[in-house]
Amino acid sequence: MLTREEWGEYARKFYKDYKDRPEEEAKEFAYQQGKAFARTIIKKLSLSGNDAKVIAEVLKTVLKFEPTARVETHGDKVHLINEGFCPVMETSLAFSLPWEKMCRIMGWPFFTGLAHAVNPDVVFITPEELKWRLKGDPYCFHVFEIRRE
Length: 149
Known about the structure:
By secondary structure, this protein is an alpha+beta fold. The chain has helices spanning 4-18, 23-44, 52-62, 87-94, 99-118; strands at residues 69-74, 77-82, 122-125, 140-146. The protein is globular, with a radius of gyration of 14 Å.
């Protein structure tokens, strides 16, 4: 999995490549990157199934080097809580990149792709709707929910 430095370099390169392109194009690229990354993890760890536990395992693996991130499973929901400086936030602040935009066009689509590689019925509820450090909250709170009809 990627170290904090590698995530930072990825975010910097992503912004450089996509800052002047349509947002939907950037989001789609990040989403597909997330799906591909998750598929690699699923294969490497021999994971099977499409439930919240598998999504949580993929997230934990991706965030292995993120000491302040917590991943919790609650029934059909996975909570990702980070009280620290995530790579998107850290890179944005260190290199004067637009933090809000980086979450919207790179971070959130990437995480959605990770979850959709496990289960395409997952709904991602963004920190913007919950708790987001950018809004002054003490942590970022992401929810991945498998919605059953």
